[in-house]
Design brief:
The chain is mostly helical and 278 residues long. It contains twelve helices and four strands. It folds into two domains: 151 residues, Endonuclease Iii, domain 2 (Orthogonal Bundle), CATH 1.10.1670.10; 102 residues, Orthogonal Bundle (Endonuclease III, domain 1). The strands form two sheets. It has a two-stranded antiparallel ribbon. A two-stranded antiparallel sheet has the order 2-3. The protein binds iron/sulfur cluster. Iron/sulfur cluster binds next to loops. The site of iron/sulfur cluster has 14 residues, from loops.
């Protein structure tokens, strides 16, 4: 008999090691202000709950966000069959250029970041070379990306900090990564996963939406969704899970008019947003 896995939608762990344990501190408001560093570097931010699709904001349906372990394994088996080796789409040549690319990608598309970083990384693919380039030139390279002024500042500041504190290397520890300017939890999760092979779950708007539509979480913050996914995804699928979910959300389970007719998990989806031809 299959085990039922309940997604604890309102969980929000006080500390989040890469374990699957979720705590349960409810978050009730639609907007919260957090006094922590953002991915783009300002001291305080508003975390908008607008990431949630309309169906996620509605009161949960009876039985929603409940998946058996067998169902969850089946969903990820489909993703694995469709895309055995999913890859991130940010171009990079080493952990440092990956880190910079992820920092630049906040509230920007990967395609837009790649367009800007091709020339930047050709001149500067190490912290020292980035410092030698200087903030003005970095800013000029990334001026087509949103929030480019702040991001250029952060790229220079994190390069300085890597040279000062880490011998010019990108650290493989979450705390050391999030201590860098412009690096928040999501960026650290991407770098830990892609550069160092850790099983992490970076929750962006696509992962957030797909997790709700597939009844894997009712969490109303990225952190709550991360906790749920880390807890319920079978270990064998966890390393690639972030990329499967992000690519599924980016290309198939898109926000408006999801492409359900070509979805590999359509028969397992109970979302009110599901739409199949009659
Ligand atoms: S069936 Fe549609 S709504 Fe459900 S996961 Fe697939 S694309 Fe998304």
């Amino acid at each position: 008999m299959s085990k039922t896995v309940k997604a604890v939608g309102t969980s929000h762990a006080a500390s989040r090691p890469s374990s699957r344990t979720a705590s349960t501190t409810p978050s009730k408001s639609t907007t919260v202000t957090t006094a922590k560093k953002t991915e783009t570097g300002s001291a305080t931010r508003k975390v908008e709950k607008s990431m949630a699709p309309a169906s996620a904001k509605a009161p949960p349906r009876k039985g929603a966000a409940k998946r058996t372990a067998t169902e969850i394994a089946a969903i990820f088996a489909r993703f694995a069959a469709a895309m055995p080796e999913p890859k991130g789409e940010l171009e990079h040549s080493n952990p440092f250029t990956l880190l910079v690319a992820v920092v630049l990608s906040a509230q920007a598309t990967d395609a837009g970041v790649n367009k800007a970083t091709r020339a930047l990384f050709a001149c500067a693919d190490t912290p020292q070379k980035m410092l030698d380039l200087g903030e003005d030139v970095v800013r000029d390279h990334v001026k087509t990306i949103g929030l480019f002024r702040n991001k250029a500042k952060n790229v220079i500041a994190l390069s300085q900090q890597l040279l000062r504190d880490h011998n010019g290397e990108v650290p493989a520890e979450r705390d050391a990564l999030t201590a860098l300017p412009g690096v928040g939890r999501k960026t650290a999760n991407v770098v830990l996963n892609m550069a160092f092979g850790h099983k992490t779950m970076a929750v962006d708007t696509h992962v957030f939406r797909v997790a709700h539509r597939l009844d894997m979480s009712l969490g109303n913050t990225p952190e709550a969704v991360e906790d749920d996914l880390m807890r319920i995804i079978p270990d064998a699928y966890l390393f690639h899970a972030h990329h499967w979910l992000i690519l599924h959300g980016r290309y198939t389970c898109v926000a408006r008019a999801p492409k359900c007719a070509t979805c590999p998990v359509a028969d397992l989806c109970r979302s009110v947003d599901k739409s199949l031809p009659a």
